[in-house]
Specification:
The protein has one domain: Orthogonal Bundle (Recoverin, domain 1), CATH 1.10.238.10. It has eleven helices and four strands; from the N terminus they run ααβααβααβααβααα. It is globular, with a radius of gyration of 18 Å.
Length: 191
């Protein structure tokens, strides 16, 4: 019994991991804060990137900037890394919902859902020209499957429940910021 409890999961964050992450954060962000231009570099987004990619990265950046001071401090950075690398599905869905909910009122309108779906679809199309889905039909189907009380708004509960029950809905709604490879490389760098 004691032995099973002492075995640690490899994905567990240790004090050493946090110290290593802080050293890397401090070397990448000498000011002690991660600014939008540095965040864009992390995601591989440059000024020549598509308008949609720029908009998406800004939305993601602002979702991690929890105190809304237009920079990500180390604690916000650790929370973001933890969510991306180790977050539970429900936590990732809550974060995705927060990104979709542009006005922060706790529910998603068709306009909010359409805005993010449009950005993600254009990014997918930019990376794979064969992707061609009708944004309006995606939004319509999402609302049919997820908006259980038919009030033309999706609550957090409906969002999570709909995503967990239907793989297509999950694919459409769960945002994946894709910086995992960068974080893993940075964490393993000079180890």
């Amino acid at each position: 019994m004691g032995q099973a409890e002492s075995n640690s999961d490899e994905s567990e964050v240790t004090l050493q991991n946090i110290q290593d992450l802080y050293r890397k954060f401090a070397s990448e962000c000498p000011s002690g804060n991660l600014h939008l231009h540095e965040f864009k570099r992390i995601f591989g987004v440059s000024s020549s990137s598509s308008e949609e990619e720029l908009a998406y990265v800004e939305i993601v950046f602002h979702s991690f900037d929890t105190n809304k001071d237009n920079k990500i401090d180390f604690m916000e950075f650790v929370a973001a890394v933890n969510l991306i690398l180790r977050g539970k599905l429900e936590d990732k869905l809550r974060w995705s919902f927060k990104v979709y909910d542009r006005d922060g009122n706790g529910s998603l309108t068709r306009q909010e859902v359409r805005h993010i779906i449009k950005i993600i679809n254009k990014i997918k199309r930019h990376k794979d020209p064969n992707v061609s889905e009708n944004i309006d039909s995606i939004c319509q189907r999402l609302f049919e499957l997820v908006d259980k009380n038919h009030d033309d708004q999706i609550s957090l509960e409906e969002f999570i429940e709909g995503s967990e029950k239907d793989p297509w809905v999950m694919q459409q709604l769960k945002l994946d910021p894709q910086p995992t490879d960068w974080f893993v490389k940075q964490m393993n760098k000079n180890s």
